Amino acid sequence: MTQPAKPFLEEAAALLGPRGLIRDPDLLAPWLTDWRGRYTGRALALAAPADTQELSALVRLCAQAGVPMVPQGGNSGMSGGATPDASGAALLISLRRLNSIGPVDAAGRKVTCGAGAVLQDLHQAAEDAGLRFPLTLGGKGSATVGGLISTNAGGSQVLRHGSMRAQVLGIEAVLPDGRIYSALTPLKKDNRGFDLKQLFIGSEGTLGIVTAATLRLVPQTQGRVVAWAGCGSIHAARALLLLAEERLGEALEGFEVLPQTCLDAVLAYLPDARAPLEEPQAWHALIEVVGDPARLRGALEDLLGEALAAGTIADATIAASEAQAEALWTLRESISPAERAKGPAAQHDVAVPVESMPAFIEEARVRIEADWPGTRAFGFGHLGDGNIHFHVAAPPGVDAASWDAGDGKAISRTVHDLVTAAQGTISAEHGIGQMKLGELERLADPVALSLMRQVKAALDPRGLLNPGKLVSLAPRPPTP
User: Fewer CB near the terminus (10 Å): N or C of the chain?
Assistant: First the structure.
């Protein structure tokens, strides 16, 4: 430990108390590696402030000592955005103790909660008040509100309700110098200049550390009806989506697609899982509608009957109970862990214009598998908003680290080039983190990148807050 670090840690320990500063290597270890296992770093310690005021004092202390800070929520991110680098110079700051929720304002349909509140607990609190929070994802048991805000998370309900940005009514954050920006009270109209809270949504903890937020809630639905349909192609799945939007309107809340290869991986991964349809299909669509179940079941049956008669789908089933509906969603939400269990893969969270998504999936798959024989390319995800998780599985038997550093990196570069050519984005809902920092600088609009650097320099001129993530203060050399 360097001499400057020792007095800093002593002051931090005095500020935070025994619960608030962890230096035991065994206790630190689980938080130093990202969820995917791609990045492992080192840290001076893990700080867990008890409230916003304590965090503010800690950040001031870090600023005075020049100690870099890496904020972390549930450590379930996909881009290495909450993992420190290998230098060991940074302080890892956990927001998990800031986990308050409520009380729920039922009349105003909103709730204020801490950045460490877990999404699943937020869902339960809203439900207990007769409302719901309209954003969900597979990692709801570990994802935190602060992490969802910092990455502008999406999920399966974006089609109807939008991403996390649309759910945030107000925000509180600690700035890099320790000042507290507090704007938790929502106003429908406020023209006092910039909407500053938007700076922190999607900024991945590089401009401020989100400590609390006021979130919008929506009325609970009378119920939901979930269906699973098999299609001969991704283009047929797109045609089914358009028909569903026309026939079902705002009742349509979720529309997910996955190829048979993904379903096969999940069925092998989950010992008790069952295939929804009798025969394998090239593509599968998972459809959720919300409202009066009795009326919607009939509407969904009519929709699927029309699609079957037109040849848009080959088979379909409608969940007969809530347990069956959950089982169908479990299949979709288990794709990432199931594929991860099969071996190394280059994983891409990308988006293209909605109407271009089917063609992109097919053309990118053919291109990648031709240029890198032995790989398996496939896409799955949110067909309704153009967000596709495009994965490329490595050939069997390769060394994971070597493949990832060689072919895996070259494949990702090509995928990102294809996405950019299609006027898309290399990050749809998982953020840039450290994984895509070089690619963002290679492909982003220079004017937009310059503006981001100027904002970063204005708020964090020393680059102490989550360094090496999202945007660097100085241009980096292109990735070789």
Answer: C
How remote is the C-alpha of 142 from its chain's centroid? 12
Residues 153-191: tens digit of each pLDDT: 887 777 788 889 999 999 999 999 999 999 999 988 888
pTM for the complete prediction? 0.88
CA dist., res. 395 & res. 73, Å (int): 34
The first and second tokens of residue 472, run together, are 């660097």
> For 246-274, how does the pLDDT look when each residue is reduced to its tens digit (9 = 90+)?
999 889 988 999 999 999 999 999 999 99
